[in-house]
């Protein structure tokens, strides 16, 4: 008989619904990313970019990205988003239920905790303060959309100092270094 892991226990007891889709204010806009056409090709291209692939380890093939996006869209654990700034898509984001993710093995995740994965797709758009400007609006929108959510987590690669500085400037605090399946990460938390 297979022992029940901490993550399996949280998945069983996680009663929160799908992660919300945040409603952002100008100049920001978020929408669900589609698993075909322009969205698929954009997400795939951005994840191939060296500045993203170095830390996300998702420089996957187009069919694998299509499958990942389709799986997210059919499920209720993750919402893949394209976030636009002044009408231009600039960030790929995944909003996920932390209690139903591997990160729940690393901290006491509550059913309504949300997690974020963020990637600024174009190298030319990095170092412009986009993430630090977006994060307070994004976390406010997520807290508003899920009144039971009290924490939002990020788990950047510990080597990604640029992202960590942006996340801190955007309202997240470092909690602990944690080992995830594909990286040593810094668990970062934003409280309601």
Automatic annotation (TrEMBL):
InterPro entries in the cross-refs: Acyl_CoA_acyltransferase (IPR016181)
Species, as recorded: Lentzea roselyniae
Source taxon at top rank: Bacteria
Residue intervals passing through the bilayer: none
Lineage: Bacteria, Bacillati, Actinomycetota, Actinomycetes, Pseudonocardiales
Pfam families from the UniProt entry: Acetyltransf_8
Gene3D superfamilies: 3.40.630.30
Identification of the protein by name: GNAT family N-acetyltransferase
